[in-house]
Amino acid sequence: MRRLFPYLSSYKKECVLAPLFKMLEAIFELFVPLVMARIIDIGITNADKAEIARMCGLLLLLAAVGLASSLTAQFFAAKAATGFSARLRHALFEHIGTLSFSRLDTIGTSTLITRMTSDINQAQAGVNMTLRLFLRSPFIVFGAMVMAFQVNAGEAMIFVVTIPVLALIVLGIMALTMPLYRKVQSALDAVLLTTSENLEGVRVLRAFRREKAETLRFDAENERLSGLQRFVGRLSGLMNPLTLVVVNAATIVLLYTGAIQVDAAVITQGELTALVNYMSQILVELVKLANLIVTISKALSSAGRVADILEIRPDILDGTAGLPELPAEGAPAVAFENVSLKYAESGEDAISEVSFRADPGETIGIIGGTGSGKSTVVNLIPRFYDVTEGRILINGVDVKDCRQEDLRCLVGMVPQKALLFRGSIADNLRWGNKDASYEEMKEALIAAQAWDFVSRMPQGMESPLSEGGKNLSGGQRQRLTIARALVRRPRILILDDSASALDFATDARLRAAIRSMPEDMTVFIVSQRAASVMHADKILVMENGRISGTGTHEELLKQNHIYREIYESQFKTASGT
């Protein structure tokens, strides 16, 4: 938890005032048994109604001041806890944005969501309860023991024996449950992952009639989570009965020995009542402390999980060199020099010894079988991953040396999965250029072959999109993501199999529109369709992470059997045509 203390730094005043007001409330509470003893020993014994009235007024005053102190403490505690969680959630979200795709792939989406929601909520509850009770409860416990010594030192020895036994129970159960709460949160990750996979892949799941199998898998993971929660709940549940047994046993001893002392006139009835009240206060506070320990155990476990993510250092460090908008005359816009990449926790290279150059204005087609490394190559250009060996030059500058912001301002990326965000079409297009005018967005939509359906929508570009653009067809989503990239007017445009949902005619019009755009733009087209890349200036044929052939469509038909097989399988033509 101490690793997250910096996020409480803006709430130092609240972190001090909350426990102080709780301590003030506790002090007033400790005086109550003494006032009760005075009512019994003086007011009731002597039938002194005036004394009883004065003491009752004092009790009301103590209650009113204690209530005011408690409300003030809770206000400051809540302010600090909510502010802490807000800052922590913001910091975690910002930190996740700095992590490379490799790190995100390793951690997993479900884990990050659990950290962002459940874990931070647990940490917030822990901060709130700690500020309110962590000092108050021990103060009441030890304060009651001290006050008991003021009443009668002999009887107070019962408190001296009882409190260490209670502390041993509390600390022992806390030591047992803390590691288990971490396992509970990990099991929650697994349940969340299964739920996310089933919700996202519901169409596939139903198409293959996997509902029962997935239900059984979910039940198994949910049962594991429930089993862990029941086990740790039973351990935590021992806290209250064990403390009740110890305190009640101590109360019985106190009443027995106290009755003997009262009979021998060593102590008064009021003093015995005060001692029993102090023991009751200890009981109440230990019940609160037991619940607090459970909350703190969960909070510490969750805080550690959040801190683990925050301590992951970005493996892609930002460079300091500037990146020219255009390469020097005669220099390539993009150059790969013996580039290899191995994904995290992978046993072999995803791509090996890839070398090629793309000149300004050139269109580069990349084709190959599934898993051949096509997408990996283009994901290296905007530096979503860092190369394991070799280097990549953009406009003559190594991507590791330049600022990532400068690099990505030059690149327009259209990923395989057409992802749109909730909002209007115009809002999504402005992701590419936040200052884009209506005419610029319309020009991008026309080039992306999307204007025809956007113009027919009732609100045009202001038409709302649901989460992920689910109120559009797959082809419409793909065209809008292409338009979003074109609005940026990038120097390097990457189309990563982004026309897979388009028919051949629309795909052809899209490629013609991109070629006719006025900018001297370098275009990378990744596709499994020969028709999508056959008109490219240069085609790279990928096989098992390596370039097996480079050239134009005509050259590759003659020289590269892989390309020829792909072409013939799609066009049903004779070899060599």
Task: Briefly say what this structure is.
The protein has two domains: 11-310, ABC transporter type 1, transmembrane domain (ABC transporter transmembrane region fold, Up-down Bundle); 334-571, P-loop containing nucleotide triphosphate hydrolases (Rossmann fold), CATH 3.40.50.300.
Tell me what you see in this structure:
This protein has 577 residues and is α/β, with parallel strands linked by helices. It has helices at residues 12-44, 49-98, 101-107, 109-134, 136-151, 153-200, 202-207, 211-237, 239-263, 269-310, 374-379, 404-410, 425-429, 438-447, 451-456, 474-487, 504-515, 530-533, 553-559, 561-571; strands spanning 334-341, 351-358, 363-368, 389-394, 397-398, 411-414, 423-424, 464-465, 492-496, 522-526, 538-543, 546-551. It has a six-stranded mixed beta sheet with strand order 6-9-10-3-11-12. The longest helix is centred in the N-terminal third of the chain and has 50 residues, at 49-98. The radius of gyration is 35 Å and the shape is elongated. It starts with 11 loop residues before the first helix and ends in a 6-residue tail after the last helix. Mean pLDDT is 85; it is low at 573-577.
Please describe the structure with a list of short key phrases separated by commas or semicolons.
577 residues, alpha/beta, ABC transporter transmembrane region fold, Rossmann fold, 6-stranded mixed beta sheet, 4-stranded antiparallel beta sheet, 12 strands, elongated, disordered C terminus
